[in-house]
Q: What sequence folds into this?
């Protein structure tokens, strides 16, 4: 018989529909009454870490951990590495556990989530976006090269590009439809608002200690550099992209905005949901030795929801456009980190890596609207409207959850953006 999962004295954390049970404890940065602090999500509340340190509740930990918890961004905490993250997590779990004898005295350390404004969790020095889903790469390739969708390098080298860190925004921020150069016909290119605005369903990886310049991270220790995961929407202007991307890849089609979810789920919280990485199909090459490891995938269900302005006005709920799973990536997070540093490039605490659009093999698992163009039927919304790309007033929400029998569900909170003209 297995023991019942531990619960928290914060009642809302024990609600099975909550994203934030005791087993999750994601970190976020929030602002309230003009003050910025690091907190941990528990149910519909936030445990404020600076206050915990101030009251001596983290005194059993090395001083550098309490100091990092009192910062206004998470970069110092991210730099400390897995042993420190585990020690802090054990302490916070004990503080919030239903068996905690001093629970009543700790209630003043809680702040209702509804009273705060979430901020970017870290000063993000660099942001890199990969292309790790073979299902996404194949569908996009089919639109361009129906007979030869996947280019020959794909199964050898994790493809990526350097994204723009300055335009990363936190969930809830409005996304202004970007303008740019497009070439809609054989005539000369024009400049104007994109007519092909898309989302991309992705997961972000916040980097921990990282590496010094010239010292690659071996695959065996790559996961020691993952502080935690968030949801990420790589907004994309497809018409700008198709005109500007030859031969160097995405530039202004992507750099206008990237939305992330504000709560960073520790890799350790996802340990119960690790699964074997999918076997490569028969006939695919084995990864080169520097990318070979028994690293595991993460069984995380991902969803995209769309709500148009008229749906919102009518009080209609958002429509789920697709469902996919992080476990279906061709390249694991560990492989992405090792490949990124394999030439000696340094990753720093707070850097952000993204997986690329996460799609599955089946219809209904497309991680962006571009892939859905392979289906000749446009998307029909419950309001009677149709969509090929996003319209002004559309709200796109990404969600994620990990489930396993005998454990409470762990969620990521929302990663939402609202398109304005
Ligand atoms: Ca992307």
A:
């Amino acid at each position: 018989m297995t023991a019942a999962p531990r619960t928290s004295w914060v009642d809302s954390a024990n609600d099975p529909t909550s994203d934030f049970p005791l087993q999750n404890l994601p970190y976020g940065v929030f602002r309230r009454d003009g003050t910025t602090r690091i907190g941990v999500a528990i149910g519909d509340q936030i445990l404020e870490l600076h206050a915990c340190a101030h009251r001596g509740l983290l005194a059993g930990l090395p001083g550098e951990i309490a100091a990092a918890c009192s910062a206004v961004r998470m970069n110092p905490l991210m730099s400390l590495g897995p042993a420190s993250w585990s020690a802090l997590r054990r302490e916070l779990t004990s503080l919030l556990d239903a068996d905690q004898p001093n629970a009543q005295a700790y209630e003043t350390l809680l702040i209702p989530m509804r009273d705060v404004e979430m901020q970017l969790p870290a000063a993000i020095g660099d942001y890199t976006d990969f292309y790790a889903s073979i299902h996404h790469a194949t569908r996009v390739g089919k639109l361009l090269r129906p007979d030869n969708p996947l280019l020959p390098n794909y199964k050898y080298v994790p493809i990526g590009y350097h994204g723009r860190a300055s335009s990363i925004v936190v969930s809830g921020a409005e996304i202004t439809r970007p303008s740019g150069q497009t070439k809609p016909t054989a005539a000369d290119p024009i400049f104007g608002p994109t007519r092909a605005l898309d989302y991309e369903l992705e997961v972000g990886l916040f980097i921990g200690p990282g590496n010094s310049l010239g010292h690659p991270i071996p695959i065996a220790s790559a996961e020691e550099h993952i502080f935690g995961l968030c949801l990420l929407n790589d907004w994309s202007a497809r018409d700008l992209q198709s005109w500007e991307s030859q031969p160097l890849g995405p530039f202004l089609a992507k750099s206008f905005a990237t939305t992330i979810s504000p709560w960073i789920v520790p890799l350790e919280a996802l340990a119960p949901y690790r699964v074997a990485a999918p076997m490569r199909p028969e006939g695919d090459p084995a990864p080169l030795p520097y990318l070979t490891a028994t690293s595991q995938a993460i069984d995380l269900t991902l969803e995209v929801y769309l709500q148009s302005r008229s749906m919102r006005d009518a009080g209609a709920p958002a429509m789920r456009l697709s469902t996919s799973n992080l476990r279906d990536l061709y390249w694991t997070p560990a492989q992405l980190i090792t490949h990124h540093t394999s030439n000696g490039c340094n990753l720093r605490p707070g850097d952000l890596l993204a997986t690329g659009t996460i799609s599955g093999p089946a219809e209904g698992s497309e991680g962006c609207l571009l892939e859905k163009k392979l289906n000749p039927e446009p998307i029909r919304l419950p309001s009677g409207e149709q969509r090929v790309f996003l319209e002004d007033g559309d709200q796109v929400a990404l969600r994620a959850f990990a489930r396993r029998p005998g454990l409470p569900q762990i969620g990521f909170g929302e990663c939402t953006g609202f398109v304005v003209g």
